[in-house]
Amino acid sequence: MASSPSGNSNFDSGLEIKTRSVEQTLIPLVSQITTLINHKDKPKKSERTQAAIHRVGQAVSVAVGRFVTVGEAIATENQELKDEMGQACFEARRAGDAIAQLTDVGPALPFQSDGLVTVFSDRTGMVKAARLLLSSVTKVLVLADRIVIKQIITSRNKVLVTLEHLERVSTFQEFVQIFSQFGNEMVEFAHLTGDRQNDLKDEKKKARMAAARAVLEKCTMMLLTASKTCLRHPDCESARINKDAVFHRMRCALEQVIEIVTEARSCGENKILPASIYNGIKDFKVGSEIGLSEGVCEVNQLEALVERTEDFTDSAYTSHEQRQAILSLCQLARQDTQQLVHAWAEAQSVHAKEATEDMEVAILKTCHSVSDLRRELHKVAVIRASDLLKVHGEQLPLRALKAAGAEGKLEAVAEYSRTLTEQKEQLVETCRLLCHVSGNEPLEITCIHAEETFHVIGPQIMSAAQTLALHPSSKIAKENLEVFCEAWESQLCDMALLLREINDVFEGRRGDKRSYLSLPRPGKHSANLKTAKAVKLDTEEQTSMAKLGLELRLLSSDVDTEVEKWEEQEHDIVRQSQSLASMAYNMYLFTRAEGLLKTTLDLFHQAEVCTCLPLFPSSSLFQLVEEEKSVVMTEMEKMVALCQQLQMGAKTPVQGKTATFQKVDSSIQTTRGILTVVLSLLPSCNKLTRKYKSERNSLGFPQDWRERQDASTPVKEEGALHNKNSNGFGVKSLEQHMVGLNLLESK
C-alpha cells in the first residue's frame, strides 16, 4: 500500500473496487482532498480562503479518525483480518494527521498590500498524504467488504447443512420441522445475495447472480413438493429422480453464487461461453476500420462469424426463405470483405500513408453488409421466439400431461412427454438464437440461463407426470406436477420479457427501467405507520406471490410500450405512467427479494404514494364518440375506486404475520388492477391529445388545450379531478414531491 516514488496520484491498482457502496463512500473524500491539493497550487491566499482550507483539513482528519475507530472495531471482531485492517487503519490515521498539519497555518502571518498572505505551499507533501489516505481508506473498505462476503458464505453453508438434512429425512414430521428452518435460512440468504447483486458494479456478474437466485427461488417450492412426494411414495423411482434433480440444481445454484462473490471458478467453469454473433459482428466492424489500416486481413474473422450463423441455417425450424436470405447476406459480406482487402493491397502498393477513397468506400460497404446480416438474424430469431411463445402459450402438452397423469395412463404420459420434449428442444434452440442477437453480455447470460432452465425443467415435468400416473389418487403427486408446470409457464413469461429487452437494445431504447423519485423512506412520511413493524415473508409466501409479481412486471412493460407510442414523450400523462410502471416494477422486484423495497413496511410506504387519478378532465370527453366516452368513464371510475382502495389498504395498520401477508397480497393485486386500467386508458388519452394538437395547429391557437381547459374550469377545494395544479393522474409533480421529502427530513 506504500505510495510509489513516481508521484502518480492514482492509488494502489491492486485494490479493485467492485461494489457501488465502496465507490460511493470514497467520492466525498476524493472531492475534499482534490480541493486541498488544488489550493496548494496557490501560494498566496486570502484570510477567508486560509480559514476554509484549515476547516476542510481538520474535518478530513476528524472524519478519518472516526472512520478508523470503526475499522479497528471490525478488526477486533474478525481476527482473520486483524493484522491487515490494523495496518490499513494505522496508515489512514497517519495520513489524516499529516493532512491536518499541512492545512494548519499556525500563527497569523502578516498580510501584504493586496490583502493576501504568502503561505508555504507543500504540494508534494499534500499529494503524498492524499495518496496514502485514499489507498489506506480504500483498503479498509475493501477489507470490510470481505465481511459481507463472509456473511454470504456463512449463510450458504447453513443452507447447505440444512439441505443435507432435508435430503435424508424419513418422516413427514421431521421434514416439516427442518423445512421450516430451511425456509428461514433461505430468506436470509435471499436478502444478503439480493443486496450484493444490487451493489455489484460488473453487469455480467449481476446477471449471473440474478440467474442463480432465480433458480433458487423456483427450486425452493419444487424442493418442498418433490420431497413430500418422495416421502409419500418412497419406492417410486420417478419420484426419487425428480427429487434428486431439484437438490442437485439447488446445490449448483448455491455454488454459483459463491463463485460470483468470491470470484472463484470451479473446474467445470473453465469453458468459455459460446461467442455470440452480435459481438462477432461488432468486433469485425471495428477490425475492418482499424485493423486494415495496419495491414491486418479480416477474412478469417468473417469466416468464423459466418460459421456461427449455422445455428440459424442448420435449424430444422428455419424456413427456406429465411435460410436463403441469411446465406445471401453471408455471401455479400464475403464479397465486400474481399473488395476491402483488394483496396487495401492497392493502397499498400502505392505506399499510401492514409486510407484511400476506395478503401473508405469498401469499409463502408463491408460494415453495411454485416449490419444487414445482423438485422436479418435478429428478425429470424425474434420471429421464431414470438411464434413459439404464441403456440406454447396455450400449454396444451402440459394440460394433456396433467390429465393423463391424473387418469393413471402411463402410455399417454409417455406420448405427451415426447411432445413436450420436442417443445423443449425448440425453446432451447430459440434461446440459443436469441443469445446470438442479444446485444449485450448481461442479456447473453440471461439467454443461457433460459436455455438451461428449459433443458432441466422439461425432464422434471415428465418424471413428475410419470409419478402421478403411477399414483393417480395422490394429492401430493398432483401438487408436485402442478408446481413444475408453473415453473415452466413462469420461464415462458421470463422469455417474453427477455425478448422485449433484446428488442429494446436492438432498437436503441433504454434497457433499464426509468428511475423514479417518489420512494418514501421508512419512518418519515406517514404518522400512522411510525410504529408499524417490518415483516419479512418466508419462502413459501414469497413463492405464492411470485406469479402475481410476474404479472405486475408484464403489465409495467406493457405500459412502457404503450407510452412509447406517444409523440410527446414529456407529456404529464407519459411521465406519470412511466413513474407508475416503475413503482410497479419495484413491487415485482420485492416479490423476488430484490430491489429497493426490502421489507413489507417499505412496500406499504410505496403503495401509499402509488396514487393515480383520471387521465384527463371529464369535461374533455365530448371529443370522444359516445361508445368511447362510455368506456372511458367506466374505466375512470374504476381507477378512482382502485386508488382509494390502495391508499386505504396501505394506511390500515395490521398485526401478525398472516394479516401482513394478506395486506401485501392485496396491495400488489390492487396495483395490478390500476396498471390494467391505465393500460386501457392510454390509447384513448393518446388519441385525445393528438386530436387537440391537430386542432390547435389548424386553428392557430397559441396555448395548449390543457391550459385552456384549466383556465376555463373552476377550481374545486375537494377532489383533485378538476384541480388546476393536478397533472397526469392528478398526483403532484416529482419536483414538488421531492421538496416535500426534504421538508419532512429537515424536521
From TrEMBL:
Keyword Cytoplasm among UniProt keywords: yes
A single Gene Ontology CC term: cytoplasm
UniProt biased composition (Basic and acidic residues): 704-721
Region (Disordered): 703-728
GO biological process terms on file: cell adhesion; Rho protein signal transduction
Single annotated GO MF: cadherin binding
Highest taxon of source: Eukaryota
SUPFAM superfamilies per UniProt: alpha-catenin/vinculin-like (SSF47220)
Keyword field contains Cytoplasm: yes
Taxonomic source organism: Cyclopterus lumpus
Keyword annotations of the record: Cytoplasm
Similarity-based family: Belongs to the vinculin/alpha-catenin family.
Name of the protein this chain belongs to: Alpha-catulin
Protein's cellular compartments: Cytoplasm
